[in-house]
Specification:
This protein is an alpha/beta fold and 532 residues long. The chain has 3 domains: 244 residues, Aldehyde Dehydrogenase, Chain A, domain 1; 185 residues, Aldehyde Dehydrogenase, Chain A, domain 2, CATH 3.40.309; 59 residues, no CATH class. It is built from 18 helices and 22 strands.
Length: 532
């Protein structure tokens, strides 16, 4: 009897569609189909692929409200959050690649030394890996699945994706949207299940794995992929710092802290999970922030700011971090208040780095605030973490803010803005340390779904080259002379002069034009000497 998963609405708690878990034998069959589809898709040009995929823009625009409803039910988000956090990133990424993908993926000529490689040209070309496995999380199931799918497809790969078991209706939505783009049959397929199904997908030996999720799950994915081996991009969690100097625009920075910490109820890998405020502004910031938090609206009313927790399992982590902080001396803007799936936002202050909430990913609407007294101290505090995804620095002194940002050990940073920098379609996104490795978005992200092929074309008509056999003691002397001229440290003219006799061994390689090179070198040398 096959295992089943019942979709549950994060809004109503009502059961929805029942899904059968993909059997491991079927995963292998799906992989075979994906390889067949890849052979057809790879043969198209980048422009032809993009032309098919950009049809999604019009479909999403036309059916936006219905798409929003599906994502809301799967995640518990408020509808504006769905637009900004799920749909906008997809549309802007698709538009960026529509305008730039062909140029980004075009073969690149590489400058070739004429003396060492006479009559030769070189290039770097990019080719798709083949079948890409995309394994996505529950917090942004639409954009964190569809963007890597689109990136993989534009570069010529086929895709097998696995949604979180909490997000399966969004998987249906994606299959439906992509089916209307006239893609080859089986180019994009889905497997359904829990972590074991993800392991089976990797065991079926795709050509690349793109994973977004927790550190623990990322380690498991990497260990499985290493058995084959398969290249992996890991987009993992964060513990992002917000550094606030006393000269920051106070109204803006408070509003930014609210959004950065509490958008999507804090269930964002780049949420502000640590806030450091300069000592002279610290007390006023706490007062302003706690007053502002009280004005946030929780729920799905006509003006709701925070939706529900996608999974109540996360509340156990949030509660443990909150209680640990209070036990170690932190102060709170209030008690944890959970109503159904709705968790009201909390500010903590007087926190320290021995509290779990400053060390571990919370992934909920709780913002800890700590004061600092100097630039060097706040850089040390911000870097005192196992994570390194994103950060923001706040000051009206832009030069100072950028100096601080450039010392932060993160994959991306923003000055006087928060989270939104991740939505810049031209910038690559990814982390360092335990936040993962590899990039997507932007040119670098597109190229991540390809491997490079280096090519050298020689047009020489000679039957032999100077570096070919036979070798002898005399050939060693001649090559040493050549090395001295090419890489020595003395004046070029002196190097040529003392090696001239040995260099005559190469004169019959007229394609090298050694005599002409040396003549030109001498003229340049004497002209330079006369000028000085």
């Amino acid at each position: 009897m096959s295992e089943e998963i019942v979709a549950v609405s994060a809004l109503t708690e009502q059961n929805g569609k029942t899904y059968s878990v993909t059997h491991k034998d079927d995963v292998i069959k799906i992989m075979t189909k994906a390889r067949d589809a890849f052979s057809l898709w790879e043969a198209l040009t980048v422009e032809q692929r993009v032309k098919k995929l950009v049809k999604l823009e019009a479909i999403i625009q036309a059916e936006m409200d219905a798409i929003v409803e599906v994502i809301m039910a799967a995640t518990g988000k408020v509808k504006t959050e769905v637009l900004l956090g799920e749909i906008y990133p997809v549309l802007t990424t698709l538009r960026f690649y529509q305008n730039n993908a062909a140029v980004i993926l075009d073969a690149e000529p590489v400058t070739t030394p004429a003396i060492l490689f006479p009559k030769s040209t070189a290039q770097i070309a990019r080719r798709p890996f083949g079948v890409v496995a995309v394994i996505s999380p529950w917090n942004f199931p639409f954009q964190l699945t569809l963007i890597p799918i689109l990136t993989a497809l534009i570069t010529g790969n086929s895709v097998i994706f696995k949604m979180s078991e909490l997000s399966l209706p969004v998987g249906d939505l994606l299959i439906d949207l992509l089916s209307r783009s006239a893609l080859p049959e089986n180019l994009v397929q889905q497997v359904i299940g829990f972590a074991e199904t993800g392991q089976q997908l990797i065991a079926s030996r795709p050509d690349m794995v793109f994973f977004t999720g927790s550190l623990a799950a990322g380690r498991a994915v990497m260990a499985s992929a290493a058995q084959h081996p398969i290249p992996v991009v890991l987009e993992l969690g964060g513990k992002d710092a917000m550094v606030v100097f006393a000269d920051a625009n106070q109204t803006r920075v408070v509003n930014a802290a609210l959004y950065g910490a509490f958008s999507n109820s804090g269930q964002v890998c780049v949420s502000v999970e640590r806030c450091y405020v300069e000592a002279s502004y610290y007390q006023d910031f706490i007062r302003q922030l706690t007053e502002a938090v009280l004005k946030l609206k929780v729920g799905h009313g006509s003006s709701g700011d925070l939706g529900g927790l996608t999974t109540l399992k996360q509340f156990a982590v949030i509660e443990a971090h909150y209680n640990d902080a209070l036990a170690k001396g932190a102060k709170a803007s209030g008690a944890l208040k959970l109503e159904g799936r709705y968790l009201h936002p909390i500010v903590l202050w007087d926190v320290t780095h021995d509290m779990n909430i400053m060390r571990e990913e919370t992934f909920g609407p709780v913002l800890p605030v700590m004061k600092f007294t100097s630039v060097s101290e706040v850089i040390e505090l911000a870097n005192d973490t196992d994570f390194g995804l994103n950060a923001s620095v706040w000051s009206q002194d832009i030069a100072k803010a950028e100096r601080v940002a450039k010392h932060l050990k993160v994959g991306s940073w923003a000055i006087n803005d928060v989270i939104k920098n991740i939505g810049h379609s031209g910038l690559p996104f990814g982390g360092v340390k335990n936040s993962g490795f590899g990039r997507y978005h932007g040119a670098e992200g597109l190229r991540s779904f390809t491997y490079t092929v280096a090519g050298l074309t020689s047009r020489s008509t000679y039957e032999s080259e100077p570096n070919w056999f036979p070798y002898s003691d005399q050939r060693y002397i001649e090559m040493r002379a050549f090395f001295d001229v090419m890489f020595g440290n003395e004046f070029l003219f002196l190097r040529i002069k003392r090696n001239w006799r040995a260099l005559q061994a190469f004169k019959h390689y007229s394609s090298l034009n050694l005599g002409q090179h040396w003549h030109n070198f001498k003229i340049q040398f004497f002209n330079k000497s006369l000028r000085h």
